[in-house]
Amino acid sequence: MTLQDDIKNNQIVLIVVTKTNYQSHIDEIIKAVDASSEKICYAALTKPYNSIIATLKKLNLDSGKYFFIDVLTSTIKTPAPDPNCEFIQAPSALTEISLAYTKAVQEKGCKNTLFDSISTLTVYQEEGEVIKLVHTLINKARVNNLKSVYIALQEDNQELIKDIFMFVDSVIEIKS
Amino acid sequence: MNKTILIVDDEPHIIELEKAILEMEGFKIISAENGTEALAKLKKTTPDLVILDMMMPKMSGREVCEKIRSDPKTKNLRVVFVTVARFSEIGKDKLKDLNVSDYITKPFENEEFVKRIKKALE
User: Nearest Cβ partner of A132 from B55, B87, B91?
Assistant: First the structure.
């Protein structure tokens, strides 16, 4: 089964990638998610959303079909308001991330959400809090019949990956 | 002799609730508010059953269960998950791999809770 098929056929997917060739893995995942839905929420947990827009451009994908959640920009500067992006005060603000997700699905009509990368949040918050967030987000997605793709870095936090595994429909490991 | 149950949950009021229900049924209850405390208690005592919450700080219920299974002294302990967590199908398969007797989803009916704990102890 291809990555695209796996994302298409499963509601909640966990993709575990290695840091080696990280960006090329992410590019492949973005292309597969892009093909799965008309409106997508991109939760940028590792990079500012401007950088994600540049990636979409490089991949010849339409950034207009995306709504962004950006956890980094506000930690560096005060961002100008953007209707296509919800700026979170800090990556540790997990409740804000959850509320931004609700906005993405209820107000912006996003049908699929890509979390890039969920394991990064354990740099800022205790693992137990991150798994509670993931569980809440997955429940919201199931209740609303929406899809989600969680990217986690193999090297980041093995226990978090094993816990997310308990709640998802499919796990894909991409090795270099 | 009364059977002993170890309740592991990071929310003290949940421990108190489950304790009250199970004590009325004649069980002896010990408790722990996190995985580390639970594993320390299991070094000193061997209960008949462990009730585990899934989502706890520092160490999840899944991780505690894996540690229970990896210790020769506790590997055959009966374990029941009592949790708000909704497991996926592959999550349920993982619970089977961990030889978990049952999982009970919160909120629960007291009568059903007792029935399933008793069944897990059979």
Answer: B55
Structure ipTM over 0.90, yes or no: no
Whether B55 and A142 lie within 8 Å, measured CB to CB: no
Residue pLDDT, tens place only, B57-102:
889 999 999 999 999 999 999 999 998 888 999 999 999 999 999 9
Say if residues B62 and B97 touch (Cβ distance below 8 Å): no
| Nearest CA-CA distance, residue B84 and chain A, Å | 10
Q: Do the beta carbons of residue B91 and residue B64 sit within 8 Å? A: no
Grouped pLDDT means (10 residues each) for chain A, 176 residues:
90 94 93 92 95 96 97 94 96 97 96 96 93 95 96 90 96 88
Considering the domain delimited by A3-174, tell me its CATH architecture.
3-Layer(aba) Sandwich (3.40)
Burial A79-113 (b: 16+ CB within 10 A, else e): eeeeeebbbbeebbbbebbeebbeebbeebebbbb
- Cα–Cα distance between A105 and B17 in angstroms, integer? 36
Q: Answer yes or no: do A166 and B55 touch at CB < 8 A.
A: no
CATH of domain B4-120: 3.40.50.2300
Q: From CA A153, how far away is CA A19, in angstroms rounded?
A: 7
Tokens linked to B61? 């219920």
Domain locations in chain B as residue ranges: 4-120
